[in-house]
């Protein structure tokens, strides 16, 4: 999804879930920050490299997809935050182990991992809530693509049509990063075709560009992983489900609900605003930020400020090493590393090494990225507090 949904729509969902204006701003800030917390940003603020939740284009150019460790690094980030696997134990007959491992990383909504993601944020700071809401929202827009480089899983071909009621129009993909998508003529920018299975051009929905992130679009295509069986993707339906699910999940995280499970939606909670929300979702536009912002300000009666990446940089960079983890960004970094650690562990536990190896430090001692030692410290403190 794009910033209009991750930031402004998430603010609306948080406010409807019962959070205050200030809390809603913190949550949506972190939901949007997931798309911007790159190693370049972390280097600028001297943050932990293990907290990277995305990779910039310039960083991807240097990504080493010809090595297992390079592909694992990419998969850790993109599968953990943007393409959460729908079924880590999905069956696929008559295929190689490597292909089956990639097949099992295909994103889908209402998964066990999504429930784990929401539960991971339970009792944690608002930064963790924001991270989980980004992941939840993306499971709806990014379903059927995988957060690991794969031509077979993620490629598109000539059979890609935009649907308009009973009519359809063939979509044209082009590589022109500086040219806006042409909605009138169904022309969308995508990554360059590369026949190398593991090219970064074949990561996620890069071959379909930003098209899957638009709330208004309905489309159909023939993915190879589905045996070239037609898939129809209805984003307006998926986006309203994502919104209702975020409200439900955040009510659970606030403590207003005792349980959260798959296919949990708060339709009653959004009923008074559903028509307005669906109008925003269905409006054919490149950026719905102004519409979501207007709704948010009507809900709270307060100004929803624009996202500002540098808002919390000074607080973090000026803090002492001991104080850093208590700052806004410090809490975000811990939440991000917790999410990445959890997903990597789940993938590795399913006997899939595409996201790397995960160790039980209680049994084997600490191994891996030193940044993650902060998680062990926090977990130990939490355990002692609950005893």
Describe what this molecule looks like in 3D.
It is a single chain. This protein has 387 residues and is mainly alpha-helical. The protein has two domains: 3-149 and 236-386, no CATH class; 154-234, no CATH class. The protein contains 18 helices and six strands. The protein has a four-stranded antiparallel sheet with strand order 2-1-5-6. Strands 3-4 form a two-stranded parallel sheet. Helix 1 (3-16) packs antiparallel against helix 2, helix 7 runs antiparallel to helix 8 and helix 8 packs antiparallel against helix 10. It is globular and about 50 Å long.
Provide the fold topology.
Blueprint: H1 3-16, H2 21-33, H3 39-45, H4 57-61, H5 68-81, H6 97-103, H7 112-121, H8 126-141, H9 151-154, E1 160-164, E2 167-170, E3 172-174, E4 187-189, E5 218-221, E6 231-234, H10 235-254, H11 267-270, H12 274-282, H13 289-300, H14 313-318, H15 321-324, H16 328-349, H17 361-364, H18 373-386
Parallel strand pairs: 3-4
Antiparallel strand pairs: 1-2, 1-5, 5-6
Helix pairs in contact: 1-2, 1-10, 1-13, 2-8, 5-16, 7-8, 7-16, 8-10, 8-16
Our count of domains comes out at 2
Distance between the termini: 41 Å
> Hey, roughly how much beta strand do the residues contain?
5-15%
Quaternary state of this entry equals: single chain
Strand numbers in spatial order across the main sheet: 2-1-5-6
Number of strands: 6
Question: How would you describe the shape?
Answer: globular
Instruction: Please describe the biggest sheet, giving its number of strands, its sense, and whether it closes into a barrel.
Output: 4 strands, antiparallel
The whole-angstrom Rg is: 20 Å
Q: Please trace the helix and strand order, writing H or E for each element.
A: HHHHHHHHHEEEEEEHHHHHHHHH
């Amino acid at each position: 999804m794009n910033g209009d949904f991750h930031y402004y729509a998430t603010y609306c969902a948080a406010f409807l879930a019962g959070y205050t204006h200030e809390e809603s701003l913190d949550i949506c800030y972190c939901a949007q920050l997931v798309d911007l917390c790159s190693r370049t940003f972390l280097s600028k603020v001297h943050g932990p490299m293990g907290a990277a939740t995305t990779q910039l284009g310039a960083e991807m150019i240097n990504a080493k997809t010809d090595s297992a460790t390079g592909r694992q690094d990419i998969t850790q980030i993109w599968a953990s935050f943007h393409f959460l696997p729908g079924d880590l134990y999905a069956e696929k007959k008559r295929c190689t182990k490597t292909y089956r491992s990639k097949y099992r990383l295909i994103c889908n909504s209402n998964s066990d991992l999504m429930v784990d993601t929401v539960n991971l944020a339970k009792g944690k700071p608002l930064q963790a809530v924001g991270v989980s809401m980004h992941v939840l929202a993306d499971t709806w827009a990014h379903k059927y693509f995988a957060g690991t480089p794969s031509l077979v899983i993620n490629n598109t071909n000539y059979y890609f049509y935009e649907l308009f009621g009973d009519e359809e129009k063939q979509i044209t993909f082009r590589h022109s990063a500086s040219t806006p998508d042409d909605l009138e003529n169904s022309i969308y920018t995508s990554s360059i075709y590369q026949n190398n299975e593991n090219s970064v051009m074949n990561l996620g929905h890069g071959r379909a560009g930003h098209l899957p992130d638009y709330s208004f679009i309905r489309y159909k295509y023939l993915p190879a992983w589905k045996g070239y069986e037609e898939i129809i993707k209805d984003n307006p339906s998926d986006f309203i489900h994502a919104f209702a699910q975020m409200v439900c999940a955040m009510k659970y995280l606030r403590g207003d609900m005792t349980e959260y499970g798959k296919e949990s939606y708060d339709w009653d909670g959004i009923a008074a605003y559903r028509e307005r929300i669906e109008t925003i979702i269905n409006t054919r536009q490149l950026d719905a930020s102004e519409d979501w912002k207007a709704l948010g300000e009507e809900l709270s009666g307060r100004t929803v400020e624009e996202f500002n990446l540098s808002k919390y940089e000074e607080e973090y960079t000026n803090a002492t090493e001991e104080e850093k983890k208590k700052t806004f960004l410090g809490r975000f970094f811990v939440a991000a590393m917790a999410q990445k650690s959890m997903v990597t562990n789940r993938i590795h536990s399913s006997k899939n090494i595409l996201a790397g190896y995960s160790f039980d430090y209680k049994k084997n001692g600490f191994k891996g990225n030193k940044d993650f030692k902060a998680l062990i410290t926090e977990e130990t403190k939490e355990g002692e507090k609950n005893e």
